[in-house]
Amino acid sequence: MAELRCEPDGFGPNFRIVLFGLGCWAGDADAALAAAERELQIALAEAAAAREAASARKETAARAAAEEEAPHARLVLVRHGQSEWNLANRFTGWVDVDLTEQGMLEAREAGRLLAAAGLEIDEVHTSLMRRAIRSAVLMLSTLNQCWLPVRKHLELNEQHAGLLTGENKVSCAQRWGVDQCLSAVSRRVAGLWEGTIAPALREGRTVLVVTHGNTLRALVAYLDGLAPEDVYHVDLPTATPLLYEFDGAAPREGARRVGRAGGGGAARPLPGVRCPRERGAAR
Ligand SMILES: O=C(O)[C@@H](CO)OP(=O)(O)O
């Protein structure tokens, strides 16, 4: 604020005019200051919005460029060929049963389907169970890629069948209405996905996973974004490859399910399943 100095009496009227002028000026200045502040706020907000829009445009362009450059990856999911206990319709879980003759034929046929689709496998993952390992080896042999190492993981083992192990699936379903909960198997499969499978897909590799009914359900649920109650209805016959293709750096979001690379398979659907912790209602 300007400093006002008192003048001698002779300047009285002029002094009052000056004061009046200064008063007006001071009043206008406040209004002008407020208006300028408003203008400044508007200008700052506009600049921030413009900056945000520019950075969003830049991000979109970078993502599009990354996706264009990202390698094309493939994931083949397949349940092993028919096992001895699939044939007998018994709950198998961690019992290490072998393939039937039919199961071996199915595994070879699955390999032929992949060869016919022109797929060359970069890496193979399976469980510690012989029905899955043998199926993977037979598939690779038919694919003329038997030199590929088969990587075995506990995480890909079938869900443990607990007290149901060895029981007939139909009679159990009739007697008790069997429930199965995939949460434990989903957790261990998710760990393998994050640590091993997804990084390979990010590098554009073609990954074959030969595993079991429920581990496969957990993977399919994850990839297709299925709710726990829906995944129980997913029918996964033996030795029937599912092909997923991925473009971009985020395997799960980039998944494109190509479909079954062929029909056949001898598996019967599992009895109705329900997980009390995940679904309150009975079915
Ligand atoms: O444990 C089982 O009963 C079956 C079905 O889930 O497993 P697999 O897929 O190994 O035949």
TrEMBL record:
Which Pfam families does the entry link to?
His_Phos_1
Q: Does the keyword Metal-binding apply?
A: no
Q: Which residues form a coiled coil?
A: 26-53
Q: Name one GO biological process term.
A: glycolytic process
Region of interest called Disordered, as start-end residue ranges on this chain? 255-283
Matches recorded under InterPro entries: His_Pase_superF_clade-1, His_PPase_superfam, PG/BPGM_mutase_AS, Phosphogly_mut1
Reactions listed under catalytic activity: (2R)-2-phosphoglycerate = (2R)-3-phosphoglycerate
Q: Which family does it belong to?
A: Belongs to the phosphoglycerate mutase family. BPG-dependent PGAM subfamily.
Protein name in the entry: Phosphoglycerate mutase
Q: What is the lineage of its organism?
A: Eukaryota, Haptista, Haptophyta, Prymnesiophyceae, Isochrysidales
